[in-house]
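Supplementary Text 2. Reproducibility record for the structural model of the 422-residue chain.

All settings were left at their defaults, and a single model was retained for analysis rather than an ensemble. We include the record here because the model underlies the residue-level annotations in Supplementary Table 4.
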Amino acid sequence: MNATVLAPSFVQENLGDIPVARLRADFPILARSVHGKPLVYFDNAATKQKPASVIEAEKFYYEHTNANIHRGVHTLSQEATTAYENARETLRRFLNAAKVEEIIFLRGTTEAINLVAQSYGRSRFQAGDEILISALEHHSNILPWQLLCEQTGAVLKVVPINDAGEFIYEEFERLLGARTKLVAVGHVSNALGSVNPVKRIIAAAHAQSVPVLLDGAQAAAHGEVDVQALDCDFYAISGHKLYGPTGIGALYAKKAILEAMPPWQGGGDMITTVSFEKSTYAPLPHKFEAGTPNIAGGIAFAVALDYVKRVGLANIHAHEARLLAHAMSRVAEIKGMRVIGTAREKAGILSFVIEGVHPHDIGTILDHQGVAIRAGHHCAMPVMTRYGIPGTARASFGLYNTLEEVDRLFDGLKVVVDMFGR
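Retained model, structure tokens:
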């Protein structure tokens, strides 16, 4: 059976008042073909594509403003510093942080979680203290805590998930206790799309004076995040998951917590004075930003955030929910297809297996149909172990995807089934 390639009309799909076709025109890469077929990009949980405005923002910086920040009196340095600090303010507004000092620019979610583990945790945790995570976590919210446990003698405790891929809140309540020193959970699962009950988790933890870190890498592009309303203590995000550049992200943390934390790395720009006898450190947020940062990335990250805000996070959420619902309505057409992760509250992620077909084979065959998905364990090996599988095929949706593209995915899956004689 040959895959059907549909003309990209997209005539009836809007995000709010904005036609999807108009949004797609903002993303240059979507005009390309793969193996002679129009690209369908369904690997959005790994990284989003970038609108032209983000690409141009980086280009403009290097062509017109390239200079190091904070330390120069010349015009280029002053302009670069202003643009970079304005980007920090854009991110503060995006997350609704109370103060701009609560926004630390970093390489991404992974570095943000490692910063908290090493700066906050290493100086506070002792043997027998407990760190509570969930069985849904990305490796980036497992390994930093395992390393910290090895360093301090703390113990990692794991909240299990049910067969639908949902956080078992009753088990969380059972595990949360006097020894718990931190709760660190993903806001949205990258492997399954499950949305965790984070407000309820935070309220329960705070009732026992336990701080909470949220891994927001997958959540921030799919709906409004208000860190003050959540009342989380830490929130970590990555720019490339939010239609921005790679190599840039941020940690939000409450100011009082950050002020009490020691610097994590030493170097330029994070100091006030340096001598061989003693050094003093810069005020927030610069205390945690040693060395020359990704200046162009930070500036372009802000442009991406403004783009997402203009489209509307509520509109994006509703559109991705339509795409997921359409995909779920077609699952029964594919013999042997089983969805992994059927939580009642889900982001736009379809993780699945097909009986008798390795996920890598699914991904390879779909690639030859012009459809890009992710295949494997998705940096969430404990999730795969929970279901007794080596990995899944994962189609994840973004604001520029369409119902027609979902149909192309399923046309491609029919090719997979035919090739394996099912």
